[in-house]
């Protein structure tokens, strides 16, 4: 029996992105057709096949080089489970939906799970999203995510001012700590007045989440880069945070923070920004290119624009009245209709739905989407999204429709990039 999945390769020294198709004839080997890429950095445990006359160079285990110059030539090696790369490469395999790859010992998932809406007030539907949540429903969601291999959970102190972290910590008690990764954030604008506000906020997060370490800790908004970035260093040294990232920072702030961390032997290991078909500032301001060049994973939030790109909502069926997202998006829904209609039609051609296509678009652009999940069936959609390969024509058409929608979806908390 053959399994099928998608492999994305990103390389800082040559062509930045490629998508191939992987077949798994056994648990020991896989074959990957690489389209339109020249691989020039070292890789381990990977099988590549050159196509269309493109030269591909790689180093297989044992260090011997192999040129894949002829169309159809290939090399192979063991294990499709654990594709490893030395920085600056990032190799992400989706042979199993949600399977994690390792870059400098940090696991990079195909898709992260967002819990911003978990900060809403439970079954009453009060809050930013107007979501109605139950403990039973969230536990079923977590069980389904765990079974599907989606293991990175993203939250923040300011998501419901601690409520999201608290609920997430309670729900994840059902799993061993080694079975999932936690991503949470320090928000300077919510910092206290103690001697070390970042350490204080971290301790509060650890208590709410019921853990003694955070896998990926972010500075949520830039505030004062020179002031706050050095506070990450003792937290890294203590082991209470394993990796660090920046969210909502512009390129100059990212470079500045990376220099500060570099002086102490650390680095910025991830970037998380608002990124969707309707909001591509990280393309336009060079952040995605910088991440590719430096081998830094780029995480995209609001890929679905808080539900506005799911196709579920329209002028006749708007987002929940009284919620913040209704205020932000309902007036714009008519302008988005051509885009959401096309997302739906492409989705149907893949046996999928509109939001699955929007997520697949972000993956195709080289991002790791963080997708808000509030219902168990949302996990099924992420599995479908990971299996979709959009054509170049699809991508061009969707981006043109997004541009024609002419809507500004920048959040009130986001600075001009």
Would you mind describing this structure in some detail?
The protein has about 425 residues and is of the alpha/beta class. It folds into two domains: about 5-95, no CATH class; about 105-405, NADP-dependent oxidoreductase domain (TIM Barrel), CATH 3.20.20.100. Helices cover about 30% and strands about 20% of the residues. It has 13 helices and 20 strands. It has helices at about 135-150, 165-170, 195-210, 225-230, 230-240, 250-265, 280-285, 285-295, 325-330, 335-350, 355-365, 375-385, 390-405; strands at about 5-10, 15-25, 30-35, 45, 50, 55-60, 65-70, 75, 85, 90-95, 100-105, 105-110, 110-115, 150-155, 180-185, 215-220, 240-245, 270-275, 300, 370. The strands form four sheets. The chain has an eight-stranded parallel barrel with strand order 13-14-15-16-17-18-19-20, surrounded by four helices. A six-stranded mixed β-sheet has the order 8-5-3-2-1-10, with no helix packed on it. Strands 4-9-11-12 form a four-stranded mixed β-sheet, with no helix packed on it. Helix 1 links the parallel strand 13 and strand 14 (about 150-155). The longest helix is centred in the last third of the chain and has 17 residues, at about 335-350. About 45% of the residues are buried.
Question: Which properties best describe this structure?
Answer:
417 residues, alpha/beta, TIM Barrel, 2 domains, 8-stranded parallel barrel, 6-stranded mixed beta sheet, 13 helices, 20 strands, 32% helix, 21% strand, globular, disordered N terminus
């Amino acid at each position: 029996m053959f399994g099928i999945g998608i492999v994305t390769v990103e390389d800082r020294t040559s062509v930045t992105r490629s998508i191939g198709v992987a077949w798994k004839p056994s648990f020991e080997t896989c074959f990957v057709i690489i389209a339109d890429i020249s691989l020039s950095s070292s890789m381990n445990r990977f099988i590549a096949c050159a196509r269309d006359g493109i030269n591909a160079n790689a180093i297989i285990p044992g260090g011997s080089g192999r040129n894949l110059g002829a169309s159809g030539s290939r090399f192979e090696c063991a294990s499709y489970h654990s594709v490893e790369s030395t920085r600056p490469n990032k190799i992400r395999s989706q042979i199993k939906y949600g399977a994690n790859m390792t870059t400098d010992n940090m696991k990079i998932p195909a898709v992260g799970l967002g819990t911003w809406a978990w900060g809403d007030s439970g079954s009453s539907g009060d809050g930013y999203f107007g979501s109605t949540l139950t403990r039973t429903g969230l536990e079923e969601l977590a069980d389904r995510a765990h079974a599907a291999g989606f293991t990175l959970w993203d939250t923040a102190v300011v998501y419901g001012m601690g409520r999201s972290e608290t609920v997430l910590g309670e729900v994840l008690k059902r799993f061993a700590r080694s079975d999932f990764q936690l991503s949470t954030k320090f928000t300077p604008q919510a910092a206290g007045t103690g001697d070390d506000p970042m350490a204080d906020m971290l301790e509060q997060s650890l208590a709410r989440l019921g853990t003694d370490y955070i896998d990926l800790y972010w500075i949520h908004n830039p505030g004062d880069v020179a002031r706050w970035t050095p506070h990450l260093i003792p937290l890294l040294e203590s082991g209470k945070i394993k990796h660090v990232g920046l969210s909502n920072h512009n390129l100059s702030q990212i470079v500045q923070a990376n220099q500060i961390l570099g002086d102490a032997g650390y680095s910025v290991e991830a970037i998380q920004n608002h990124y969707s078909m309707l909001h591509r500032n990280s393309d336009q301001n060079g952040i995605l290119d910088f991440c590719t060049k430096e081998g830094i994973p780029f995480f995209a939030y609001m890929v679905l624009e808080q539900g506005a790109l799911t196709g579920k909502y329209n002028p006749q069926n708007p987002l929940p009245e009284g919620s913040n997202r209704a205020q932000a998006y309902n007036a714009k829904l008519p302008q988005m209709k051509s885009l959401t209609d096309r997302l739906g039609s492409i989705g149907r051609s893949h046996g999928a739905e509109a939001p699955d296509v929007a997520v697949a678009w972000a993956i195709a652009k080289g991002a790791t989407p963080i997708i808000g999940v509030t219902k168990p069936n949302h996990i099924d959609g992420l599995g479908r999204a990971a299996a979709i390969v959009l054509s170049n024509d699809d991508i061009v058409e969707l981006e043109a429709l997004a541009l024609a929608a002419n809507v500004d979806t920048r959040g009130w908390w986001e600075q001009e990039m």
